[in-house]
Design a protein that fits this description.
The protein has 124 residues and is α+β, with helices and mostly antiparallel strands. 23% of the residues lie in helices and 34% in strands.
Length: 124
C-alpha cells in the first residue's frame, strides 16, 4: 500500500491523512491504545493535513523555529474511532475531535529539516 501522497486530493481519495507529531510524544504513546498530542488540551482537536506537499508547507509556516524532532504519522481515516471533520472549505485539513486510536496509524514518515529549521522533505 502506498503511504506517500504529495497531492491533497490523492491523499483524501486514498483515505489517508497525516499528523505531524512531536517524536517524543509519539514514542511515549505508540504502545498505547490511543495517542493524544499535548496540543489537544488547548486546541480541542488533533490537526491533520492531506498531502505531503501541504504538510511541508505547514511545517515551514509554523514549526521552523521549534527545534523539536518530529515524525509524521500516516493515519487511515476510515479506521479512526474519534469524530473527524473538515473545518476548512477546501477540505485539506481534517481535525480529529478525540484521540487517535493507534490501530489507525498505518505508518510513519521521516521529517528532513535544514540547518535553519526549514522542512525540506517528508517521506520514507
Amino acid at each position: 500500500m502506498t503511504l506517500e501522497f504529495r497531492d491533497s486530493a490523492a491523499c483524501k481519495e486514498a483515505g489517508i491523512t497525516y499528523h505531524m507529531a512531536l517524536a517524543s510524544e509519539w514514542e511515549a504513546q505508540r504502545g498505547e491504545h490511543t495517542y493524544t498530542p499535548s496540543a489537544f488540551a488547548a486546541d480541542g482537536f488533533i490537526h491533520c493535513t492531506n498531502g505531503l506537499d501541504l504538510l511541508e508547507w505547514v511545517g515551514n509556516q509554523f514549526y521552523t523555529n521549534s527545534p523539536d524532532e518530529r515524525t509524521v504519522l500516516v493515519v487511515k481515516t476510515d479506521a479512526i474511532t474519534s469524530d473527524v471533520r473538515y473545518d476548512d472549505p477546501d477540505e485539506h485539513f481534517p481535525h480529529i475531535y478525540g484521540p487517535i486510536n493507534t490501530a489507525a496509524v498505518i505508518g510513519e514518515l521521516k521529517v528532513i529539516r535544514g540547518e535553519d529549521g526549514a522542512f525540506t522533505h517528508i517521506g520514507s
